[in-house]
C-alpha cells in the first residue's frame, strides 16, 4: 500500500523522465543513421558527459533559487496575514488609546492619515517623518486619565493574552525581527501592568517607567502599521480600503463610505 502511494506520487516525474530518455535515444539513432559516424557521435557524447555535472549544477542552482524565492514569498504572505490579525485584534485598539496621550498627536495624524493616492514613496516619506518626530507621551501622575488608561490597557491585554501567545507559535515570526520586537514589547507591558495591583496614584518614578514601556510599544506599533498599510495598498486594495476608513490616527474616521473618493474596494 505504501509502495503504491509512493509510485503514484512520483508517477508524473517517472513519465516525464521516460519520455525525455526515449526522445534522446530516438534522436541519437536518427543522428547516427543520417551521418553514419558512430565514433564521432560517441566522441561528442563523451564531451557532453564531461560537462554534464556542471550543467546539472547550474540547473539545480537556478531551480533552487526559484523555489527559495517562491517559498520566501509565501512565507512573507503568511506573515503579513499574522500581522493583519494582530492589528485587527490588538494593534489598532492600542494605537487608538495610546495616541490620545501623544503630545504631538496633531502632527502625528497629519503624517499618518493615508489616502488611496499614496505610492511607495509616500510611505517611505511618512516613515522618515514619523521617526524624526520623536513622540512624547503625556503619561504623568498629574494627568488624571493616566490611571484609567493603564487599568483599561491592563484588562485589554489580559483579555488578549491567549491570542498573543498563539502568535508566538508561528515559526514565520523568526523571519520578521521588527514584528518580533513589537510582540516582545507588548508582552513586557502586559507583565508590567499585571504585577501592579493598582494603576492609580502611582509615584512619579513608576509612572515614568511605565511611560517608557508604553512609548516603546507605541513607536513599534506605528512602524509596523505603516509597513502593513503599504503591503495592503500594493496587494489587497479591498483590505486597504477598510484600513483607511478605520485609521486610528484619523479623528474624522468613519467606516461608512461617504463618497466615491473613499470607495477603494478594488481587487
Description:
The model has no long low-confidence stretch (mean pLDDT 82). 74% of the residues lie in helices and 0% in strands. The longest helix is centred in the first third of the chain and has 61 residues, at 38-98. The protein is an all-alpha fold and 267 residues long. The protein is built from nine helices and no strands. It is elongated. Helix 2 packs across helix 5 (146-159), helix 3 packs antiparallel against helix 4 and helix 8 (204-235) runs antiparallel to helix 9 (237-245). The chain folds into two domains: 2-67, no CATH class; 78-262, no CATH class.
Keywords for this entry:
267 residues, mainly alpha, 2 domains, 74% helix, elongated
Global mean pLDDT: 82
Beta strand %:
under 5%
Order of helices and strands: HHHHHHHHH
Principal-axes geometry comes out as: elongated
- Give the C-alpha Rg: 29 Å
Number of helices: 9
Summarize the structure.
This protein is elongated. It is mainly alpha-helical and 267 residues long.
Task: Record the SSE blueprint.
Blueprint: H1 2-35, H2 38-98, H3 105-112, H4 120-133, H5 146-159, H6 161-168, H7 177-194, H8 204-235, H9 237-245
Amino acid at each position: 500500500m505504501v509502495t503504491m502511494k509512493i509510485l503514484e506520487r512520483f508517477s508524473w516525474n517517472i513519465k516525464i523522465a521516460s519520455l525525455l530518455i526515449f526522445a534522446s535515444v530516438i534522436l541519437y539513432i536518427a543522428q547516427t543513421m543520417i551521418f553514419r559516424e558512430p565514433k564521432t557521435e560517441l566522441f561528442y557524447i563523451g564531451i557532453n558527459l564531461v560537462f554534464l555535472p556542471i550543467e546539472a549544477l547550474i540547473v539545480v542552482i537556478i531551480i533552487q533559487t526559484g523555489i527559495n524565492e517562491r517559498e520566501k514569498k509565501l512565507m512573507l504572505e503568511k506573515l503579513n496575514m499574522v500581522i493583519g490579525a494582530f492589528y485587527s485584534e490588538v494593534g489598532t485598539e492600542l494605537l487608538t488609546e495610546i495616541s490620545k496621550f501623544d503630545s504631538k498627536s496633531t502632527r502625528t495624524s497629519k503624517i499618518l492619515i493615508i489616502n488611496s493616492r499614496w505610492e511607495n514613496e509616500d510611505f517611505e516619506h511618512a516613515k522618515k517623518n514619523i521617526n524624526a518626530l520623536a513622540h512624547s507621551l503625556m503619561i504623568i501622575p498629574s494627568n488624571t486619565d493616566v490611571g484609567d488608561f493603564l487599568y483599561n490597557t491592563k484588562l485589554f491585554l489580559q483579555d488578549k493574552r491567549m491570542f498573543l501567545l498563539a502568535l508566538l507559535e508561528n515559526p514565520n515570526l523568526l523571519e520578521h525581527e521588527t514584528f518580533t520586537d513589537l510582540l516582545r514589547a507588548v508582552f513586557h507591558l502586559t507583565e508590567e501592568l499585571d504585577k501592579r495591583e493598582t494603576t492609580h496614584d502611582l509615584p512619579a518614578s513608576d509612572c515614568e517607567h511605565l511611560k517608557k514601556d508604553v512609548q516603546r510599544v507605541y513607536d513599534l506599533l506605528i512602524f509596523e502599521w505603516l509597513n502593513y498599510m503599504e503591503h495592503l495598498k500594493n496587494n489587497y486594495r479591498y483590505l486597504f480600503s477598510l484600513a483607511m476608513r478605520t485609521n486610528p490616527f484619523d479623528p474624522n474616521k468613519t467606516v461608512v463610505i461617504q463618497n466615491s473618493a473613499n470607495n477603494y474596494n478594488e481587487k
